[in-house]
Amino acid sequence: MEPWELREWHAEYLDACNRHDLDAVRGLVDPEVRRAHLPSGQDAWIDDLADLFHAFPDWQWRRIQLVIEDDRIAAHLRGSGTHAGVYRGISATRRHVNVAEFAIYRVSGGRIVEFTGTGDAELRQQLGA
Question: pTM of the predicted model, to two decimals?
Answer without folding.
Answer: 0.94
